[in-house]
Specification:
heterodimer; A: 112 residues; mainly alpha; extended; B: 237 residues
Chain lengths: 112, 237
């Protein structure tokens, strides 16, 4: 726990405020019946997949290639998440299955 | 919240109940293993209320990230909510005091339910929406609390539970990939971020990546916007 309770509270407050802002902004800007500019609508449509792809790469930034244990668990669990999701189409099964597989791999197979 | 509205809203929210309990439990476990107990889990789920945002929040807290970085990353991960708001402008109109909560609680899952939901005969639509949103958040808070308590009670090794965040983003990406008219934005997002990681390194990779993404998407607009119009068979309003 590297932060003091007050610092933690401040971080949570910032995250809460920014999250609310992202949800409230369209209502603040466009709730008076004005049409949003077309560039905003366009970016609103094409940005989300790009940002999610960005975040996936960000999540995997710690992957190393010097040892098998550095890249095999995220690769296997990542594939499991995608394949389970294509197969079953259930968020729960995909996320839970992939996370359990990852935990087994890093703790058991490649850990200790 | 009256009984009739509750009876109408609850069945609709059952898939979210399952999902939020599971993702919430994983969040509570992650936060517990990072050193913050059940009170913090409940506080975050009550005030932030965003699945991927809170997963990211755990890693920000654990890294002792500066507030500016926390704000920037939260903005990035929640950016898609802007789109949700745009398509809920009409639906939330005239909801009075409930509207503020509707905006606050507009998560991916609640958005998905509300964008297709219709209130049954005899049930007030605004109350119905509000009840759906409130039920969803109660599942989320419940899941977080259960996860946190499980983590402290069982004391099992939670190493690797943070992969839930990666898995969540992958699952969202699969859904987006199927729904998308063009895969260029997703591929661009991955490629630009990878390039940024290799050039500027893991610490400061996101801002340059996002800059490239927005710039290239703006440049590609004539091409990508046309694709969308062809698909829908009509120009955008």
């Amino acid at each position: 726990m590297p932060l003091t309770p007050v610092q933690t509270l401040a971080s949570i407050a910032v995250m809460a405020a920014v999250t609310f802002l992202t949800r409230a902004l369209p209502f603040l800007l466009f709730d008076r019946g004005d049409h949003p500019p077309k560039i905003v609508l366009y970016l609103g449509r094409v940005l989300p997949p790009a940002v999610i792809a960005m975040l996936i790469v960000y999540c995997l930034k710690g992957v190393t290639f010097t040892a098998l244990g550095g890249w095999a668990p995220p690769l296997a669990a990542g594939l499991a998440a995608v394949l389970l999701h294509i197969w079953k189409g259930n968020d729960l099964i995909s996320i839970f299955g992939a996370t359990v597989l990852y935990m087994i791999l890093v703790q058991g197979v490649f850990g200790a | 919240m009256d009984r009739k509205t509750l009876t109408a809203a609850f069945p609709l929210t059952v898939p979210v109940l399952m999902g939020y309990l599971a993702i919430g439990i994983a969040f509570g476990l992650m936060l517990q293993s990072a050193g913050w107990g059940v009170g913090w889990a409940a506080l975050m789920s009550l005030t932030i209320y965003a699945g991927s945002g809170q997963y990211l929040g755990v890693s920000l807290l654990a890294a002792g990230a500066p507030l500016a970085q926390a704000a920037f990353l939260t903005l990035m991960v929640n950016f898609r909510h802007l789109v949700y708001g745009l398509s809920m402008l009409e639906k939330f109109r005239g909801m009075g005091w409930r509207k503020l909560y509707m905006i606050f609680s507009l998560t991916d899952e609640t958005y998905a339910l509300l964008s297709s939901a219709k209130a049954p005969e005899g049930v007030d639509e605004h109350r119905f929406f509000f009840t759906v949103a409130l039920l969803d958040q109660s599942y989320w808070v419940l899941g977080s609390v259960i996860g946190s308590l499980l983590g402290s009670a069982l004391g099992f090794d939670t190493t690797g539970v943070d992969f839930a965040m990666t898995a969540l983003f992958l699952v969202i990406a699969v859904g987006q990939w199927r729904a998308a008219g063009s895969h260029v934005p997703a591929l661009l997002g991955g490629a630009a971020t990878l390039a940024s990681l290799l050039i500027v390194g893991a610490e400061d990779m996101l801002l340059p990546a996002l800059g490239i993404i927005v710039a290239v998407l703006a440049l590609l607009r004539p091409r990508l916007d046309e694709e969308k119009m062809r698909e829908e068979g009509a120009p955008c309003p």
